[in-house]
Structures are given as structure tokens and as C-alpha cells.
Amino acid sequence: MRTISRTMTGLAACAAALLVTHTALAGELKLEKDELKLGFIKLTDMAPLAVAYELGYFEDEGLFVTLEPQANWKVLLDRVLTGELDGAHMLAGQPLGASIGIGTRGEIVTAFSMDLNGNGVTVSKEVWEQMKTHLPKGADGKPVHPIRADALKPVVDAYRASGKPFNMAMVFPVSTHNYELRYWLAAGGINPGLYSPADTTGQTGAEVLLSVTPPPQMPATLEAGTIYGYCVGEPWNQQAVSKGIGVPVVTDYEIWKNNPEKVFGVTEEWARKYPNTHLALVKALIRAAIWLDADNNANRTKAVEILAKPQYVGADKQVLANSMTGTFEYERGDKRAVPDFNVFFRYFANYPFYSDAVWYLTQMRRWGQIAEAKPDQWYADTAKRVYRPDVYLAAAKMLVAEGRAQEKDFPWTSDGYHAPHADFIDGIAYDGHKPNAYLASFAIGLQGKTANAH
Amino acid sequence: MTTPANIVEVAVRRRAPKRAERFSRLIARSGSYLALVGLGWLVPLCRLITGDEPRRQLTELWQELVVPLLALGCMLLMWGILAPRIETSLGTVPSPGAVWAEARNLVTEHYAERERGSEFYARQRERSAARLADNPDADVRIRQYTGKPTFLDQILTSLRTVFAGFVLATLIAVPVGILAGLSKTVNAAVNPLVQLFKPVSPLAWLPIVTMVVSALYVSNDPWLSKSFVNSAITVTLCSLWPALINTALGVASIDRDLMNVGRVLQLGWFARVTKIVLPSALPLIFTGLRLSLGVGWMVLIAAEMLAQNPGLGKFVWDEFQNGSSSSLARILVAVFTIGTIGFLLDRVMLALQAAFTHTATR
Prior knowledge:
Structural class of chain B: mainly alpha
Oligomer: heterodimer
Strand order of the largest sheet of chain A: 2-1-3-12-4
Largest interface: A-B, 39 and 26 residues
Distance between the termini of chain A: 94 Å
Structural class of chain A: alpha/beta
Number of helices of chain A: 19
Radius of gyration of chain A: 23 Å
Strand content of chain B: under 5%
Radius of gyration of chain B: 28 Å
Number of strands of chain A: 14
Shape of chain A: globular
Strand content of chain A: 15-25%
């Protein structure tokens, strides 16, 4: 009898110990909503979502998340706005564009920047052969990087002289890709055209005609000959290499070093209604980001295996691995090390910096999507309306308290602005506090005060 | 009159020859049903076994079994020979073997996903128990598994959607068709609408349906999600017309004498419809419904692809977008699945028609 009761006590103690761990795991947040549907586009930078799901980080926060691929960025944004999706993997420009009414209007906020860099510009094989003759070569006979659009200009001129429009694609009017591609082209003296209230295609005065194509369809569209090149995230540049239909010429890391790429967006109303759920989501995503960058990308091979599942990105492992594991293949066989091609956590990658928001806003003005000149204060106010570092830091603080993150990995005292820098392909300096002065430094595009061209 | 002599005679006749006769009568009777399910070749085979006109049975067997098998074999052979020669950017077009392997793979994935599902529930129960012990008032509902729908799930979703759309189409098309068949006035009113909308492709309807459903339909019932309603209504809009036209035609071409009999008997309008109109128009109504279901199935796949609504169409589109080396094989598995299901649906409708109309003409 005594033995039995002793065993019982032992069991009870074990159970109690288990319970304590579990309570710690469950977190202390009282969730307003725990069944969530999150949208994503099939791109490697959706990785934090897939990782948080597969490694059980969402469940640890008491969240039951369904991840659902979306057809294109417009569908994704519309479904977040109608509430069919609770939140989604979004282009950095999307919450800003929606909030100031470029395209679909709606208040979107972001408390979590998903990654840095990760895009590339690919041109068709034919265009590449023509560009090559204008490229300086290094000692090893390979083209010197970064490749500037100066080499593309004579090719574009030749196409235009023979009456053929030079078409390229990006993924969405307010996408980072649109601004990066435009920046790269303009830095090489090619005019990508202006938007205006009368021209929502953004082709006024364009030497290269840009149009929208959903990311996964880029290779097929290039193959069909509808476009001569595109700017898109991974794996769709590496896919062109592996299919042998195109050559990536430049990565966005080279256009703007450590640029913010995707953010996790929810509607402002959703964030207000479900503050604890929002915090729990950001916590799970931060943990996923930490895992993705841990020990010098040691987990990336595992991440590639997750992403290769058909319900996530679904491309072949070796294609995904090309960019995710710190290399990037340009021309076939020309594989170079780009350790920071995908950054998910280091360099405070997840902190939603106001200065990054302001940069995207300057580009929206530069290319006419913002039709009127705005004062510097407007840029700062808009950034503060959309970017929510407060939520991010609150989530980070909880993770540090739980022992799941380290204090030194978060910019606790930042005012939200990066120090002025000139990490761009053309070396033009950027200070987030002075957007109008920045706009004045470009040769191509609208300046702060100039009226819109019609 | 049962005399002893009679009894002997009956007993003699009941022996073997009688059994064979009954067997062949059974074969003859089941022949039409077997043909329905694509097993028509069993008839000559059985007759051959009973030794009934072997030459004729052999010819029939040749036509009903051997020729179709040869054609299938030829297709597989041509496919096997030609596929490896077509080099796409995703590798060569997969061979029959690769497609078969991928089909098995999809089934394995289905079971793996189910396994993950039960692990998910186990984890959830564990967590719920822990939370309950911590706080007796904790909300510990069991949540639905949040994993991806497998290929088999997508098939079920598509079937559910096509049936919902088809039933809705039938409920509208048959009554309207009967009215149009009975009354020249109604027919004149309905006809221009039918002519106008019949040729419209589902892809043109889809955006409109999506917008209207989004505006009018507010429900979070997981069994009747918006995407399901969208697809089902698109199917309805496209499969309405064959059923409507055939019903109207069937009703309009009823023998005038039959209608006159109804009048003589002074049957009420409703009784006339149920006793005379429906029975005589049934064969054509079913022909219409069969066409409807076929159109509905084709439309559904296209609608799912375009609207990204769950189902086989979405599976095909997702695989196309994934662009992995196994994508083409997986898409081909879906193509054959779609074909097989379409064929089976058609057979089901034929069987229903046979069961309801007792007619030999199809």
C-alpha cells in the first residue's frame, strides 16, 4: 500500500514538473483570437512563416495557424483588407502604398520586417549576350560585379531604334522590386517612366516598359518572350538559371545593401482588436527569424527542406539552396558567395525602421505614384502611422524575459532611423530625416517640389 | 394439374440445360447495366463460357475488350516513346512510369499528412490538459488541424463543389424548363436569355460572382466558405443551360395525344405535370442533366485554377507555379484523375437515367 502511494506521489510530482514546463511554454498572453489564416506568396522569404509553423513556434504561443499561398500580391492585399486573411507576408511598400491610397486603399500596419535583400534582376539569354559585349571583365575573365545598367543601355537603345519596345516585369506597382529595378535602370541612365493620376501603368516617358507579373510566373513569361527581363525574389531568378532561359545580372544587395524586403502586415483595425494575438504572432516570427540565421546560417539546409515542400514554395531543393545557403548563381557556372543574400535576423533585420519606410515613400514620389510634393514632416508621419516598432520591441522583450532571445540582438534605444549612409549602387547618400533633399539628388525622376508630368 | 408424370417432366427440364438458359437470360438482362459501368465485355465473355455462338462472342469480345485495351496500350506506348524527347524547362515530359510513381507518392503524402494531423491533435490535447490544470476555466476547445489539404482532400473538395453547383442548377433548370416547354409564352421569354448566356465562359462569370458573393455573403461557416460558394455558383451558371434546353425540348415534344388524355381525364395542372409531363420528358431531362454535370466538372476545374479556390484546379495551378522537377508528373496525375472522375460522373448519370426511365434508347 505504502509503495503504491509513494509511486503515486512520485507520479504526481512528475506531472507537476511537466505542468510547470507547459505553463511556461503556453506563455502568459491572453489571446483574443487563436485560429488564424495567414497568406503568403511562393517566395523563399516567406520562410519565417513556414519555419514558425513547422517548428511549432505558433503552437507554443497558443496560435493555430493555417498558411495559404495566394495568387498574386493584389489578391493577397485585398484578402487581408476584407478579413479573409488575418495577416500576410507583404512587400515592404504594400502597407505604405495601401495606407496612402496607391492602388487598393486600406490601413495596414507592420510590426515585423521579415527579411533583408533577397531579390535579383534577371535578363533573357539573348539580352545577356548583347549586354556582355559592354561589360568590363576581371582577371578571371568573368564580368566585374556589380553589373550596372550602363551595359544594358546600348541594348535598350538598339531595341528602341529598331522599333521594338523593351519590356521588363516587376511584381507589383508598390513592390520593392519595382523601386529596385527603377533605381538600377535610372542609375544606368535608363528612364523607367513615370506614374501619374492619368497613367497608372507608370510608362510615361519610359525607355523600358515595366509591367506587373506574379512572381511564380516570371520564368514562364520570360520563356514565352513577352518580357526581356524581370526583377523578382527567389527562387525565381535561380529558376531561370536552372532552366537555362535567363541570367541574373544584379542582386538587390548590390543595388541597396541590406534593404528591407518583406514585412508581415495586418490591418490597423485587426492590430487594435487583437493586440495580444498580434504580440504572440510577432514573438513566433522572431523566434523563426532567429532560427533561420542562427550559427552563421547553419539551419538553412533544413530551411530549404521545409521550403521545398509543395505547400510552401515547392521548387526543387537545389534551386532553393542556391540562394538560401549564401551563394548566388549568375551566369550558369558563375556561382559567387553572397552570404547576406537573404538576411532574416542579423543587422536588426526584423525591426521596422522608419527610415526604410521613408525611403520607399521617396521612391513613390520619385516615380510619380505620390502625385503631389509633400513636406519632410509628412514622410515621417506616414512612416510612424504604418511602422510599429513598439509592438516589435514589446514582443522581443517578452522573448528575452522567457530566455528565448538575447538582449543584445535588439536595438532597444533606436529612434527608428538608420544613420545616413550611401550604400547604393550609385553611391548617392540617404538621410531618412531629409527626404526632399534626397529626392533632389537624382537626375532621373520627379523631385520633391516639381509638379507631376502629364 | 399436378400428375406424377408432370412432376417427372418438370424435374427433367430443370436439369443443366435449364440452368444454362437462366444464366444466359441473366447475362442478357444485366448486359445493359454492365455496359453502363464499362464492363460490357463481360457479356460476350460469359456467353463464350456457356458455349453460346462462340464465333459471334469472339468478335464482340474483340470489339469491346481487345480494341479498347489496344488503343490504351498504343497511347501509353506513344507517350512512353515521345515524352522523353520533349525537353521543357522543367526537364522532359514525364513518362507513364514517372506519373504512376508520382501518383503513389501523392497517396503516401496523404497518409503522412494524416499522421501529422493526429500528432497535432495529440499535442493539442497535451497542451489543453496542461492549461486546464493551470486554470480550470481555460478555453480548451479542440482546434481543427491546420495542415495543407492533400491531393485526396482536393478531389473531395472538387466533388463536393461540383455537386452543390449541379444540384442548384438542376433545381433552377428543370422547373423553368418544364414551364418553358409547356407554355409558348414562357419559352419566348426564356429563350433570348438562354441564347445570350449559354456561350459565356466560366472565366467571364468568375470575377462577377466573386464580387457579388463577397458583397452579399457573410458567414464564417467553414463548411460553406466564400470560395466554395464562388466555385459552386460559377458551376451553376454554366451548367444551367444544357439542362434547361433539354428539359424544355423534352416537355415540348410530348405526344399531343398523351396531353389530350390528361385533359379528358380532367387532371389538374399539377397532376398533369407529375403524371404525364415528367415521366415522358424524363429521358431528355436526364440527357440534359448529364451534359450539365459534364460541363460543370470542366468549368469547376477552370474556376478553381483562376480563383485559387481549393480543389483539383488549385492543385494543378500550385504545381505549375512550384515548377519543381516533379511538377509535370504531378499535374499529369491530376489530369488523369480529372478525366477518370469526369467519366465516372457521366456513368453515374447514365445509370440514374436507366434506373428512372426504363428505356433502352440512350
